[in-house]
Design a protein that fits this description.
- The complex is a heterodimer of chains A (319) and B (387).
- Chain A is of the alpha/beta class and 319 residues long.
- In chain A, 35% of the residues lie in helices and 28% in strands.
- Chain A folds into 2 domains: 220 residues, Rossmann fold (3-Layer(aba) Sandwich); 69 residues, Alpha-Beta Plaits (2-Layer Sandwich), CATH 3.30.70.100.
- In chain A, strands 6-7-8-3-9-10 form a 6-stranded mixed beta sheet, with helices on both faces. A 4-stranded antiparallel beta sheet of chain A has the order 2-1-4-5, with helices on one face. Chain A has a 4-stranded antiparallel beta sheet with strand order 12-13-11-14, with helices on one face.
- In chain A, strand 12 and strand 13 form a beta hairpin.
- Chain A is elongated and about 75 Å long.
- Chain B is mainly alpha-helical and 387 residues long.
- Chain B folds into 2 domains: 235 residues, no CATH class; 124 residues, 3-Layer(aba) Sandwich (D-Maltodextrin-Binding Protein, domain 2), CATH 3.40.190.
- In chain B, strands 2-1-3-4 form a 4-stranded mixed beta sheet, with helices on both faces.
- Classes of the chains: A alpha/beta (319), B mainly alpha (387).
- Chains A and B meet through helix 2 of A and helix 1 and helix 11 of B.
Amino acid sequence: MTSTPDDVLVVDHLVRRFGDFTAVDDVSFRIAPGETYGLLGPNGAGKTTAISVIAGLLKADGGSVTIAGETMRPDAVSVKRHIGLVPQDLALYPDLSARENLVFFAKLYGLRGKELASRVDEVLETIGLADRAKDLSKEYSGGMKRRLNIGVGLLHRPTLLILDEPTVGVDPQSRNSILEAVEALSGEGMAVLYTTHYMEEAERLCDRIGIIDTGQLRAEGTRDELIRLTGGTDTIRLGGRVDTTGQEEAARSMRTLHGVERVDADRHSLSLTVHDAPTLVAEVVRMAAEAGMKLTDVEISRPDLESVFLHVTGKALRD
Amino acid sequence: MRSVVTIALNELKRYMRDRSNIFFVLIFPLLLVMLIGIQFGEGATTGRAAVVGDDSDLRSVISEELGDQEVDVSHGEWDAALEQLARGRLDVAVRVTAEAAAAHDEGREVEVEMVTGSSFAAPIVEQNVRSALSTLGAQRAQEQALIDKGVDRDRAVAALERARAEVQAPRLEVTSVDAEAQEFEGLGQFDFGAAGQLLLFVFLTTLTGASTLIQSRRERVVQRMMTTPMTGAQLIAGQTLGRWVLGAFQGAYIMVASSLLFSVSWGHVPTALVVLAVFALVGAGAAMLLGTLVDNEGAAVGIGVGLGLTLGALGGSMFPLEFFPDTMRRVANVTPHAWGYEAFAELQRRDATLVDVLPQIGVLGAMALVLVTLGAWSLRRSLQRAM
């Protein structure tokens, strides 16, 4: 692992055991400012334990966690100002309103006076609860509670926002709203550590992804880097009407393209095995049209993180 | 320190948000203080007597004499008075007939009829009636002596009244040989009830406050607090202070309200507040322990109420410690209530100051130290377990 002085989070050979069980086993990764890093793994993979150590809730048995240049320990105080934790479980007072919950935690983060009031108002706007701010949180829907749960983590404008499976048990609309909020925060330059077992969320949000299983970080990199680990190729399928001569002509010209490994033809379609389909698809479609193909559909199939997970762990993500 | 205060005030806010808690914290204790005061403090009047008969000088004189002896006097019909006597609502009934009234007016021998009840106070009131008649007889003799010396009646009455106002009666200081009576000397009608209920409710309230700690743990808010810039010690101090604030607030409220409503005397107030503060800390420690050992709010409230009532009963909050047998009195010293009771007894009855109640405060402080330490250890352990 190569880290730079600018890295917001540096996790270095982190180990955490519970008795004989090693929940986090020699995990290392780093997050740069403005970067969203996803820890992708099934339930029980060690994501929450890793996050608990990173957030200072648990003591590491080995290795270290450095946040904004400061070493994290459970008894450390100043380093905790840099992090905002959004735990997997809703950690809110149900008998307090959204505003009261936010004010309480804002005070614990050291905010006071006008700064506190304006920041609470801003966060209420960000999470879309400004008009329900006075309602008790126990009266909220699941999605609203989730948003409030996230809001608490944003109050003090943390350098590193840690979200532990924030969309578990959330309806699709609220889920999308949460994902949009995370994208916006990342866009503002906040470093985000995001754990999930939803492949689609990791693909959508994360600049880099670490695949974790049985406490070990099995692979990490950008989505494309991870895909390449599988050695897999993309498939472009062109469907439509064409005569035999035109089809052969199209197949022949496509085989000359750099990145195309194979072209198979049948009566109604051409199927291309390629590297990096998105960069080739436009050229392929042009060639098909020149050969007289009347295209009715174009389909790209790429290896996904599910394939990567299967490749590096030998089991499916949802096993 | 700000974090500690923030947590403590938040706990108070959450506790008081429950309206049933407002009733139990603010209203119920005062109702019990009043009830116990009425029951135990009935002796503020020496007894109840009916002086029956047409309005006359004799009836007025007897009524006034009895009133001076703090006997509660009523008038009315003879039959009704006898019925009240039979029902135990009167201690004594005195009948002033028209003949007796006329005889009094004419300076002749007066005869009144008296029927006594079977109540505890009846012999005392009977004695008061006898004293009143005896005083009346002596006054009549003095008047007659002056009249016999040639002073006219009006001047004689006026001279005697003036003399009675000028001459100081001999002071009589009574010391009861009854130890219990000595113990309660100097105690107002509502004082005992107020001190007992303060101790009972402060402990109950802090103990039932364990439920908000359990909820905070269950909702994982306590764990989340640990990710904010505060130490574990600050978190524990905040939670302890939160429980303490509940008890101290209620105790101070009972002291102020009972003073204003029932004229309860708390003796040396600063010392009384110190006793309250240390006692509430014992309750806070016990609540921390309960709130971390039990994971269910309903169970915690049940245990808290049961424990609070049992310790309160053992410690003299419901029945005076002075009436306990020796063995039970020794057992009572296991409870913080008994030490609080003794401290307040010293303050309320014997005008004690801080130095006088240092032993009780010391024992309560030691209890608080042990319980708060155990509670803090248990909270830290429960947080580790929950991660």
